[in-house]
Design goal:
By secondary structure, this protein is mainly β. The protein has strands spanning 10-14, 18-22, 25-44, 51-58, 65-73, 76-93.
Length: 97
């Protein structure tokens, strides 16, 4: 079944390590609200192992948006979060067949 594309993407709140989405998807970027020594790593999996989508990003003091330009996940999106972080990941479920 073809899923509708969301023009700006769906939000997923990133505050702790965990599974963000199961299934094929693209990640547009991450909007950072606040952090203290925040780090983010994204995996193409339903757990924190396997294929790395985005290796560990250490956020700068004034960093507010991390563009990821539609990086593609085949299995799912699992986020490993370090430090203290309040952020929103913007993703789109896979569209097409």
């Amino acid at each position: 079944m073809i899923q509708p594309e969301y023009p700006y993407g769906l939000p997923y709140l990133l505050t702790a390590t965990g599974l963000a989405y199961t299934g094929p998807a693209t990640v547009a970027g991450i909007i950072v609200s606040s952090h203290t020594s925040g780090t983010i790593k994204l995996w193409d999996n339903t757990a924190g192992s396997g294929t790395v989508l985005v290796d560990t990003i250490t956020l700068g003091a004034a960093e507010r948006f991390v563009p990821l330009y539609g990086v593609k996940a085949k299995t799912g999106i699992f986020a490993t979060v370090g430090g203290t972080l309040a952020a929103t990941m913007v993703y789109n479920p896979f569209v097409g067949g």
